[in-house]
Amino acid sequence: MTDLGSPIQGVTLYSFTRASHAREYDLESLMRKVAAEGFGPGLEIIGFSSFRGFPTIDPAFAEEFRGLVSELDLVTTSLAVNADIGIYRDRLLNQDELIAYMTRQIEAAATLGFPIARVQISLTPDSMEQLVPVAEKHGVTLALEVHADQYASHPRILALRDRYEKIGSPLLGFTMDWGATTVGFAPSAIEAYRRRGASEELLTEVVDLWNTFYSQGPPANQEVHGQRFGAFIGLAHKHGRPEFGIDFGINGTGLFGPARVNDWLEIMPWIRHVHGKFFGIDENGEEPSVPVRDLITLLVENGYKGAVSSEYEGWHWNYWQSPFDIIRAEQAVQRSAADAAGSRMITDSAEARAQLATHLGQLQR
Amino acid sequence: MIADRIIEQGTLTTTGTRASVDVRIPWYRALPGSCIAGAGLTIDGVAAPAESLRWTMNGKEFTFEELSTNVEEWWFPLDSAVLSGDIPLAVDGAEHEVGVDLVLYIPYIVTDHGVLHIEERGRATMKAVAA
User: Fold this and answer.
1) How is domain A8-181+259-359 classified at the architecture level of CATH?
2) pLDDT digits (tens, 9 = 90+) for B34-63
3) Which residues have C-beta within 8 Å of that of residue A172, sequence separation ≥ 6?
4) Mutate: best of B5, B24, B28, partner A, most A CBs <10 A
5) Model's pTM, two decimal places?
6) Is the CB of A22 less than 8 angstroms away from the CB of B34?
7) Which residues of A fall within a CB distance of 8 Å from B76?
8) Which of A11, A93, A314, B109 has its CA 20 to 30 A from that of A179?
């Protein structure tokens, strides 16, 4: 039997996008807030969000950043990097350009002291294989994010898994994003549409449509995904509110994925990092659309000892609640679930640091 | 998406024949010039001619054609860009309705229809000050 896991608690600064975009916090003050609130010890940052000039990192800045992480006793987990394959207007990056583009960001992860680089689905099995020497040179784990509308048993993800198995590098893996396995259209998103004047009839039909897709399971291929996206747009048109169509489609298919929690078992041994994606906390202190307790239980029962970055994404529409209150409440659910599963979340920095290094198969720095 | 903050309050300036306003990115991460696909500027319902529009970021001014190939200059999420165009506007103490339309490419999301683009619209009311 697998030893019980003990996930490391943490947060991604992405959760606080609205507060940082509003210039209420700069990078340093936001990191200080995270530490003071006890939202760590794990700390994840998106390179292109938080570091000016990324992926170029000035060595003096890197030293300053590492000093701040150390002073605050945080543990850097994942640097989220982007596969910007469509950066040119007239063509996609060619393979050499893409590898060079990713290499610079992986180097930035190493410079800033992140042991993981979160990479994205535009990277094919061939690209991941090509990046292994870069990962090895810098000692950075490449954790490709499995995000709705994909899911663990999606053919593209299984193709990556199968290549990982063939390559056998400990530095290749996945980031599990909980948004792939939700159980409802987030009520806070529905509330936001209500505040924008959507009728109750329309909102009821949006929820019903999502529930129908949930009952059918995740889209078997891109064609089905496209049909579902189109169905959300059609609903908005039918109710004379076409301006909501794209938003329903993006959220209904790209944020609220309808795969089941057990689907993650397909890739469990390759999960190196977790995005604890969620959208809100209800009056009972629970997440109404993401099965946080089931997901934590799954991780504990399968021996997961990496980090979970609480990733609050309700900020897209929820301008009326504090993301800090919401993160605090969601992490309480995670800890409660881990306890109930007979284990615990790691919240001590030294313990987290040692456990993460072991989890990633790396020498402790 | 953060469409509610596209136009920065209190930043409308005019030379008499040319107006400008500060613009925030409605997205969570930096994008290069090539991903700023287009913009529109209206004051009290009057649109600036497309060919008169200019985009200033990182202290440099660009036409949208120049932006389309630029992957060197990035729009950082904390920075304001400046959108300007030919619109006659007086410093008259009146409230003016400003509109900014923005089209951005999201370079890491490639769909069956090409690279994803988002269209956002900001509206704000403010007085004009002399440039």
Assistant:
1) Alpha-Beta Barrel (3.20)
2) 999 999 999 999 999 999 999 999 999 999
3) A128, A132, A135, A141, A142, A164, A270
4) B28
5) 0.96
6) no
7) 52
8) A93
